């Protein structure tokens, strides 16, 4: 997901005033005024959940603390930088040493340019390619294609590419000691309902997505941190994998039957609780599945 709802000017001005008046509090809050309170998952693992507008349209940030520094997964929009840094300072004195981007979208990479050059930023080669092609700020200086590992303070973090899904550059960030994985928008939703959103302009694929998640499930994680929405477990991830596969199967058969886009959209909303705004990827999904059916 990458949209961020525009607020009316009066609301934005009111928020700016509040932030100005709030002094120290402003430093630990986002533009929206929502306090950034990291949620503890384990002693060394936290998530800063996105809750803006009650829609979770701001990405989750994973915080992994080691004795030699902090590793973040994703860094939200540029305007969230100060709030994210302050939230990390509130739970550890260790400096932020690495940021790993799960994919290129601006709600996951927007603070990159502010973290650079002091912090190492890592992403998949395709994520960097999309950022440079789209002239996005802060493309990651370090890229990889299959897997790269970060060793810091006696701990290991595995950054693994499992295949296409939301884009062609989504990675799973696996913390073996914590048996936790941060997945970016390969798993994303609002209010406990996940929807696969396929970015076809960036190499996404509904057909490849279930197998990509199967590789993540093979890691057997206990804690699963989505790109947006609530932290879940292996069972929650499996349910999402099965939902993606069911959507692929259903849309494929509807396309095969020659059903129009409007009908298919309505079916996704009623049968799968699909969020109407996410239907923007339906044209691409239908094209991909009709090409596959031939
Ligand atoms: Zn995204």
Element order, helices and strands? Answer: HHEEEEHEHHEHEEEEEEEHEHHH
**CATH classification, class level of the largest domain:** Alpha Beta
**Helix count, DSSP H or I runs of 4 or more residues:** 10
CATH superfamily of the largest domain: Ribonuclease Z/Hydroxyacylglutathione hydrolase-like
Q: Report the sheet with the most strands, covering strand number, pairing sense and barrel closure.
A: 7 strands, mixed
Mean pLDDT: 88
Associated small molecules: zinc ion
Strand arrangement within the widest β-sheet reads 1-2-3-4-5-6-7
Low-confidence stretches: 3-30
Proportion of β residues?
A: 15-25%
Shape: globular
Question: What Rg is obtained from the alpha carbons, in whole angstroms?
Answer: 19 Å
CATH fold description of the largest domain: Metallo-beta-lactamase, Chain A
Share in helix = 25-40%
Please give a structural write-up:
The protein has 10 helices and 14 strands. With 294 residues, the protein is α/β, with parallel strands linked by helices. The chain has 2 domains: 27 residues, no CATH class; 204 residues, Ribonuclease Z/Hydroxyacylglutathione hydrolase-like (Metallo-beta-lactamase, Chain A). The strands form 3 sheets. Strands 1-2-3-4-5-6-7 form a 7-stranded mixed beta sheet. Helix 7 packs antiparallel against helix 8 and helix 8 crosses helix 10. The N terminus is likely disordered. The site of zinc ion has 6 residues, from loops.
């Amino acid at each position: 997901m990458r949209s961020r709802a525009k607020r009316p000017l009066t609301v934005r001005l009111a928020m700016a005033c509040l932030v100005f008046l709030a002094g120290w509090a402003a430093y630990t809050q986002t533009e929206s005024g929502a306090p950034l309170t990291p949620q503890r998952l384990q002693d060394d693992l936290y998530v800063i959940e996105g809750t803006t507008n009650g829609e979770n349209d701001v990405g989750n940030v994973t915080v992994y603390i080691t004795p030699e520094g902090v590793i973040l997964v994703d860094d939200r929009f540029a305007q969230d930088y100060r709030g994210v840094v302050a939230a990390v300072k509130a739970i550890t004195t260790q400096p932020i040493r690495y940021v790993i981007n799960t994919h290129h979208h601006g709600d996951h990479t927007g603070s990159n340019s502010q973290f650079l050059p002091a912090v190492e930023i890592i992403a998949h080669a395709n994520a960097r390619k999309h950022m440079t092609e789209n002239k996005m700020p802060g493309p990651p200086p370090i890229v990889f294609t299959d897997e790269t590992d970060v060793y810091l303070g006696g701990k290991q973090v595995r950054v693994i590419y499992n295949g296409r899904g939301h884009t062609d550059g989504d990675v799973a960030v696996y913390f073996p000691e914590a048996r936790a994985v941060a997945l970016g928008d390969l798993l994303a939703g609002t209010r406990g309902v996940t929807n696969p959103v396929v970015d076809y302009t960036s190499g996404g694929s509904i057909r490849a997505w279930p197998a990509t998640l199967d590789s993540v499930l093979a890691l057997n994680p206990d804690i699963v941190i989505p790109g947006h929405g609530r932290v879940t477990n292996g069972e929650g991830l499996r349910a999402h994998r099965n939902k993606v596969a069911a959507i692929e199967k259903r849309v494929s058969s509807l396309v095969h039957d020659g059903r129009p886009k409007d009908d298919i959209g309505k079916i996704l909303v009623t049968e799968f609780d699909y969020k109407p705004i996410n239907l923007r990827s339906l044209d691409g999904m239908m094209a991909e599945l009709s090409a596959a059916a031939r």
